[in-house]
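User: Here's a protein and a ligand (nicotinamide-adenine-dinucleotide). What would the complex look like?
Assistant: Let me lay out the input and then the predicted complex.
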Amino acid sequence: MTDFACIQGQLVIDGELRPAQSTKTYPVINPATAQPFADAADGSDADLDAAIGAAATVFDTTEWATDPAFRSRCLRQLHQLCLDHREQWRELTVAEVGAPLALTYGAQLDDPIEGFAWVADLVDRYQWESSLGIAKPFGIQTNRIARKEPTGVVGAITPWNFPNQINIAKVAPALGAGCTVVLKPAPDTPLTAVFLGWLASQTDMPPGVLNVVTGSNPVLGAPLATDERVGMVSFTGSTSTGRLVMEAAAASIKPVFLELGGKSAFIVLDDADLAGATGMAGLTVCTHAGQGCAITTRILLPRSRYDEGVELLAATMTAMGPGEPTDPAIMFGPLISERQRQRVLSYVEVGKAEGARLVTGGGIPPELPGFYVEPTLFADVTNDMTIARDEIFGPVLVAIPYDGDDEAVAIANDSPYGLSGSVFSADTERAVDVARRIRTGTVSVNGGIWYGHDVPFGGYKQSGIGREMGLSGFEEYLQTKVIAVAV
Ligand code: NAD
């Protein structure tokens, strides 16, 4: 545990671990035990200011922004360091996030680490400069060259649910593009971010390329949206906070890249294998206690098979009790905090008050000490109910009946969000046809996986602006410049 101990109470600024200027720390709570297990530095505006200053200076004064080969070498070093230290990082992730151990072998840790290698490869093959050819605008013979250049200092603000995945999905492409970064993680998950910054400080990256500022104040990162030294803000979190970040960034016309909430629909067409589809839907909403922005939280069942579908869902979800995240067989752990648990439980009350039928769950499992909630299924839900419209961010599924494919599509699209979705059918072509009509950034058909380093992820409508990961996610961090040379 020695590696993990050395990052406690530390920020990463200008290439070194250092305490907050106030020297204050705050306890980090293990969601599975509800007990503190470590301390994090309680950073303030002064620390953020120092981090922005370091990131701006290194951007302006070193070869980082202009030497892609150097950057890809550093990203490969960082990738290797991540692999070398991943068992300590895994232990930290399970303790800090309440992430089931099984998920750390996928999207909670191992898979994101590979993002550094993927971006390093992209940096090596990316065409940074291209010719637009010679033309004679206004009679002047001109050679036009298009260049891609880094945007500058990136302010990255991230949430607590999949912190390693989201931190790396921002940091890797931003660094690969030649930007420098100030990463501000969520107050509940500071140390996983500091761990990443600490590893980066051991590479050849110039000091200040990646800075991490943690703190107990949720709005600690707000100045990243207004500070003129910051070139863009890359934000993942709730739609309400995203709106505030966008408003604040408007004053200096700062580009904002937003990955926000979702209320995605799982459409079971009337010819689908109902047991298979409901099994998948029940498992999905309980994974990581439903704390995933792209998790399908509305299931749309054909009215002719509605009762059968609800029964199957209840059986699957009741069997999926939550458990200790350290147990390798568990996929369903605690929520992040008591605050979040109370939020989920309050939605259960709203659902009951609005007339939805609570089929299973809705309470706290008595035998577990952490922030757990039972798997919860509501039936007889209409799409105008609060529990069908708001993002609950817990293991809560609402089942809505529909008549015909057109109505299923209409209900799926009747949402302020547009992040993801699923379609199940015995007829793949029919399912793909429905998928084409869903207004979201990703759609899974019959259990297909859209997640990947090369796959752009993001949302329509109030689920965000821009795409993370893939080539699109890399180019979010680049500006386009044209140089016109009279010849
Ligand atoms: P949140 O919006 O409360 O906080 C997100 C981050 O913003 C945190 O670091 C927080 O400290 C910071 N923050 C809060 N107020 C701020 C302000 N005024 N200015 C600047 N920063 C501020 O979200 P959360 O509760 O941490 O995370 C859950 C939300 O994140 C859910 O809505 C979920 O859907 C969303 N999310 C989206 C994606 C995606 O890719 N679309 C991925 C994961 C989570």
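Summary: The longest strand covers residues 142-150.
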